[in-house]
């Protein structure tokens, strides 16, 4: 292990916002990658440092076979399991990308493996470790030698043994390009110099590199050089060269063509890498954006299935556990074309219990037609994502596997967010229920205490044989018992009515006239309104309303009783109504003391007006009115009456 620290590195730590060391482990898809990751883990644990594992997607990585690319995915997964932050960069140079990222993240040490030195490029290209050591950017570079001796070139690069077949069609397509260059050069030959013809052949090599790749471009460059010598350089129609300067021309021409071909092919490969990264990012962003905007587990699973099925040309299903931790298919399967209804629940249950992927492309049950991925939350497995591709290769490619794992991570985050939201909602409802229960008990106990005291006192007096009562006194005591019992019945009835309304009472609608409803309410409240003159102003052309008569009668009764209870004697109460196209608007005015600062609060449960200490009731009358009006599709509100007093307005549907 070689450790080199360059000038300026010692001062870097003083500029960082925190004093903790930060390690960066740079890995390539080779045999040494796992060794580097485990070494980085030991470094981080020993020095209590943050650490990250970085892989760079360069154009050269596209030429690697599936085995090498699979190793890269496995190494990144290993790093994540060991607690590292994993990052994938892209660029033409691994050293440049690592250096820029290390500077951005204030890295104090870079751990890099010993680069391969075999091959024709070694004398002309410095290794990644050497380039990083020469960077002088304020970080240490630790170069780790491989534990294993270098293997022969034929076996050291596993990517060579399993790379794709040679694209002979592209090589064949290079022949017409060379022929076209020769035809154009033949036309130009009588009028232009040989130097101009060389430019035509260089253009052909460039086009071949851009359209076909570096291999076919090199073939075109060689063909162009030989054709140029054979057809245009004296002696014509011979590869013999009589002038030494033409050998230099041929050498430079071939070298320039190969260099241009290599550069253009590199740019083309970088474009492919950037395009693949952009596509993955776009797919992830699209799913994440829709998951964030979705509420409810059922809706989340539908969104997840849709995106997974479209991205991987597959069928998918998200299996969630029940209360006993047993996975099952959704009771109401999503209406989606990509839904998978034949997932093996035994495999899925094993994946859920063991927190280990299984099925297609994994070490466990690789012969299964689908892949089963655990959806890992912060503390437990939340479910299993099952994906059955239309073509097995779609999930066997390492890039696709990594993308699917990233999708699974996003789905798990969304499910965890939904579960936490449901838990928070349950906690909120429980807290509100407890608060409502306490408020109800406090309110009812307060409002029942006075009637109970009167009833107890009057009944005790009537039961006392030692105290004689005349007929009038006895009737007064009995009347007070009846009155207070009715008050208690009214309070309890209001509570029960509100509970029925909030539970979703079924309306029994009939056509009713507002005049009849007002008249029935006045008849019911004859005693309560004895000291309050009531003015009814209803136009004769007022249309009937389609309402539940019993419930709407209660609305009028509560509003009139509220006016009588909270206004002084002889205070006038006015009932008016007007018709619109689809509703009737009813207004109940009084000239009492008015409303509190926020009239809307009066419609909340157990809310009272300003003089709550002088009047009875549990504060449920207006809450019941709002519940009934809302149930009919109307709206009720309160406001301060111009000139003083209170105004309650509500609407009733006419059809």
TrEMBL record:
Subcellular location: Membrane
EC number, UniProt record: 2.7.13.3
Keywords recorded for this protein, A-Z: ATP-binding, Kinase, Membrane, Nucleotide-binding, Phosphoprotein, Transferase, Transmembrane, Transmembrane helix, Two-component regulatory system
CDD domains: HATPase, HisKA
Pfam families tied to this protein: DUF4118, GAF_3, HATPase_c, HisKA
Single GO MF descriptor: phosphorelay sensor kinase activity
Histidine kinase domain span: 443-655
Membrane-topology annotation of the record: Multi-pass membrane protein
Listed GO CC annotations: plasma membrane
Bilayer-crossing regions: 171-191, 220-240, 246-267
Protein's name according to its UniProt entry: Sensor protein KdpD
Gene that encodes it: kdpD
